[in-house]
Amino acid sequence: MNPSDVGIVNGERFAVMAGTGVDAITMRDVSKSAKKRIGRLAYFGSGMNAVRRAPVQTKIHVNGKPWFSGKASCVLVGNVGTITGGIKLFPRASPIDGKLELAVVTAGSEIGSAILNVAAKNYFARMRPALWQSITPETTYSFPSGHAMGSATLGVALVLLFWRTRWCWLVTPVIVLFVLLVGVSRVYL
């Protein structure tokens, strides 16, 4: 048996990966009955609930030196490169190199999408149509739809995440359908 690197977080050892934030919440909240019924797909529902949480202020030091300071949704420490589903998270990771890999996930793409959406709404200044009485009246401009733009941003991020995996051909059509349905729903709502 060859020796392998081992990490320690809060006194517990790990050989593959440890995470906090969205990763930890997803693992904690996944339903055991759903895992029995639908297998790994159960993590998707748990993960969708976890990503709704606001990023938290995070400070990370590596070898005693500041490495990251800012809001983060997830922090992962890994000893291997590929996670479930064939996703290459740490391409240069090796369990025998004496090093652990570190990743910080921020909400940059969704925040950037929201800022771009507000700017585009103000640029186009298209008033909302008054076709019917809304139960939740909006006072902002109508175009482009924040829901459609946010779902497209999420969709692109997920497709990029799964692009070089065996799940690509399943995830991509589902995400495209999701984004199209959100877009269609914006016409009605």
Based on Cα principal axes, name the global outline: elongated
CA-based gyration radius: 20 Å
In percent, how helical is the residue content? Answer: 40-55%
**Mean pLDDT metric:** 77
Secondary-structure element series? EEEHHHEEEEEEHHH
What structural category characterises the helix and strand content?
alpha+beta
Number of helices: 6
Biggest pleated sheet? 3 strands, antiparallel
Residue windows where pLDDT falls under 50 for at least 5 positions: none
Strand content: 15-25%
Strand order of the largest sheet: 3-6-9
Counted beta strands: 9
Q: What is the CA-CA span between the terminal residues?
A: 61 Å
Features:
189 residues; two-stranded antiparallel ribbon; 9 strands
SSE topology sketch:
Layout: E1 7-9, E2 12-14, E3 17-21, H1 22-29, H2 32-38, H3 42-50, E4 56-62, E5 65-72, E6 74-78, E7 82-83, E8 87-88, E9 101-105, H4 108-124, H5 146-162, H6 168-188
Helix pairs in contact: 1-3, 4-5, 5-6
